[in-house]
Amino acid sequence: MTLTTHILRRGLEAAHGIHGAMSDADQGDDGHSGGEAPSRVSPWAALLFFLTAVILMAALFCIAYTYGHVIPTLCMIEAPETETYLPVDVIDPTEPPPYSPAAPPKPTDGAADDLEGNAHADHEVLLIRNKPYTSSIRQTLLHLRARAGYWSRLRGLSMFIVWNLVSGLLVAIFGAATGSRIGVAFIAVVVETLLSNLHMAWVHIVISESRPKRWYQRIPALRTWTKIAPAVALWATTNQIVSILPILVCGSFGSLKHMNDPAYEPGKKDLYAVGAQGFMGVFLMLALFVLLQIPATVTLVRVAASMLPEEDETIVPFDRTFGGRTTPAIIGGQGKIGLVEAWRSFPWASRIRLLKLMIKVALIMMACWLLFTTVMVAEAHIIFGEQLGEVMKAMHGMTGPH
């Protein structure tokens, strides 16, 4: 469903694979009475390799959570760049000012007389342009740390884990009975929609200032389910479309269509065809992610943010009225914004900022995966040496479908 859940799943598979490698090696020593007994994989070497994998995957999980979930969510609700005129004497001359000098606004007829005789009026007012915190990943992290401490980069993690574990367990139980990928996708949409309040609680925890309440105390009342469910259903549907549509399309023709045929004998040209179809699948997935997944996610986050309790303050600047498109419930409004207005109220400047952020996050995750793979391969060669082949045989098939 998400990158983080995928990492968690692979971590469990890695643990199972290492255990299998050790078990197979032990059986090899005890079960071969004749001939040369195969060399035994040291349990300590396997344990060291396993612990390294767990530590690196935990680090990847934290990076993916902070950069792939927390920061983009803040970007989706933060108000765009604002401009303010401030007198020069309120600016600290020792600090590099985050502003651009500009001429003051043209005075009205009533104010013109007040400016007469002041030859230096044009130099006493400066235009302050306040850029959004989420325009820079580093600036966002510094802001979170200043407002809520170092671990604020993992804000909402408890709620996130509970929500994903519950949804994953329900999908695994009911989806297995369908026997098809489409059936599992349908079950996933239904389950995510039923757990809409958990998703909204996670959004509220991420975007708001820290509070002494526990994560389970932030879950909204059941009566709010009807308000957030449509946005979650839209998000869950696009999530499944992005996940399975490229696979279904690319697997419906060409060489990939015949891969499950035992009598199929692919040649050199088929290898090129598979590579082209794989490239097409990645391109289709990226296109669907940008065109469907991002708008649906923005809509969900902004609808959930519109129902943030009045006593909660957001940790980044946020316009609760969405440019006058909604009225807070405290003064007689609906207390939420509609699906269409949630997306329309997201200005183009913020959309571009979010897209740039997602590109940066993708590059960061690719670099982390490259580092993870390099470290694991190097450590495997150092620890296992000539026994690496036996370990790989024992772990064979762990990357297949489960």
Oligomer: single chain
Poorly predicted segments: 1-37, 95-105, 110-121, 397-402
The helix/strand class is mainly alpha
Could you say which overall geometry the principal axes of the C-alpha atoms support?
globular
Task: Explain the layout of strands and helices.
Elements lengths: L2 H29 L11 H35 L4 E6 L21 H7 L9 E6 L6 H12 L8 H19 L5 H14 L1 H12 L17 H26 L3 H4 L10 H39 L32 H6 L3 H37 L3 H7 L8
Antiparallel strand pairs: 1-2
Helix pairs in contact: 1-2, 1-13, 2-12, 5-6, 5-7, 6-8, 7-8, 7-10, 8-10
Keywords: Membrane, Transmembrane, Transmembrane helix
Structural features, described:
The protein is an all-alpha fold and about 400 residues long. Among the domains are: about 80-130, no CATH class; about 150-345, no CATH class. The protein has helices at about 5-30, 45-75, 110-115, 135-150, 155-175, 180-195, 195-205, 225-250, 255, 270-305, 340-345, 350-385, 390-395, and strands at about 80-85, 125-130. The radius of gyration is 27 Å and the shape is globular. Mean pLDDT is about 75; it is low at about 1-35, about 95-105, about 110-120 and about 395-400. Keywords: Membrane, Transmembrane, Transmembrane helix.
In a nutshell, what does this entry contain?
The protein has helices at 3-31, 43-77, 109-115, 137-148, 157-175, 181-194, 196-207, 225-250, 254-257, 268-306, 339-344, 348-384, 388-394; strands spanning 82-87, 125-130. It is an all-alpha fold and 402 residues long.
